[in-house]
Amino acid sequence: xxxxxxxxxxxxxxxxxxxxxxxxxxxxxxxxxxxxxxxxxxxxxxxxxxxxxxxxxxxxxxxxxxxxxxxxxxxxxxxxxxxxxxxxxxxxxxxxxxxxxxxxxxxxxxxxxxxxxxxxxxxxxxxxxxxxxxxxxxxxxxxxxxxxxxxxxxxxxxxxxxxxxxxxxxxxxxxxxxxxxxxxxxxxxxxxxxxxxxxxxxxxxxxxxxxxxxxxxxxxxxxxxxxxxxxxxxxxxxxxxxxxxxxxxxxxxxxxxxxxxxxxxxxxxxxxxxxxxxxxxxxxxxxxxxxxxxxxxxxxxxxxxxxxxxxxxxxxxxxxxxxxxxxxxxxxxxxxxxxxxxxxxxxxx
Length: 349
Ligand SMILES: NC(=O)c1ccc[n+]([C@@H]2O[C@H](COP(=O)([O-])OP(=O)(O)OC[C@H]3O[C@@H](n4cnc5c(N)ncnc54)[C@H](OP(=O)(O)O)[C@@H]3O)[C@@H](O)[C@H]2O)c1
Prior knowledge:
With 349 residues, the protein is α/β, with parallel strands linked by helices. It contains ten helices and 15 strands. It has two domains: 8-148 and 316-348, Quinone Oxidoreductase, Chain A, domain 1; 153-293, NAD(P)-binding Rossmann-like Domain (Rossmann fold), CATH 3.40.50.720. Helix content is 26%, strand content 26%. β11, α7 and β12 (257-265) form a beta-alpha-beta unit. α3 crosses α4 (176-187) and α3 packs across α9. The longest helix is centred in the last third of the chain and has 14 residues, at 299-312. It is globular. The protein starts with 7 loop residues before the first strand and ends with a strand. Residues 21-347 form the Enoyl reductase (ER) domain. It comes from Penicillium salamii. GO terms for molecular function: oxidoreductase activity. This is Enoyl reductase (ER) domain-containing protein.
């Protein structure tokens, strides 16, 4: 093992107190698992990007079981500062982040182990992982940008898979996954229809992505937004939907997807009510749509996403809504919980 001076780490653990207004996180200090196991890697974390999932878990809303008082966070970028003596794929100084499901390497595995749920997450100043679950991140990106890749980036990547230049994508909302999808869609030459509940956010996005123009719909003031999508696509429908609402929007999404198109089910941001799915089966059959479940992506997907970003030298700085110091993790999680962001909120160390 290479020598590293550090022997302890600071991390934010959940309090599991779900009462409104109480602290959701507690900063703790703990000894690092040293010496490193032969294939383990010690990473000095420089940035942790937050996701809706973090705010949801911290507030007790996660639909899947979580480790009691676990460490929050699943998106991190950091620098390799020590390696076990059998590590072969990484060297000191590499820019890396762990994949968010550490049992999802090739896509063929059957188990799962999500960071911040089945095992501790990455909201810490140092993390230790096996080299097999660490991915090299693009070197042209700064720490904050790179930290957005493992969850939001790879989810957007997986959700857009199979698209080709000139096709049309409907992207719902202006959250982190959606903004990443917008970036990738633009890089891939796709036409974008973006929805939001806020005219102000839509105006900002139209300004930011002025050429070629993006088409926009306010889904709050236009409850029949699917009709508007059909109008914008001359009655045909979009080729693909980045579906973020869940039961509240899924049937409408299917109704404005072209025959044979794809709906990538990513999120469940609306209040989930199975009664809203009464027309699900008939609509899928009628429109011959492929409904595709997205669960971030495998390590191979993460590597492909990083390769695309490196090849295009795309910057991600315009995805960043706000950077908080690491110590203000609680405020940052609350900011997300209130839905105040456009794009990514990141903790910087
Ligand atoms: N399956 C996966 O692999 C995966 C990975 C990451 C995230 N997710 C899930 O995907 C969803 C988005 O995650 P995120 O991190 O991007 O969240 P986020 O950054 O917190 O996004 C929140 C934004 O989504 C929009 N939104 C809220 N309710 C909506 C609704 N009913 N219909 C459409 N848009 C709505 C809002 O945009 P406006 O303010 O513009 O209206 C809101 O600001 C979440 O449900 C998250 O749990 C899934």
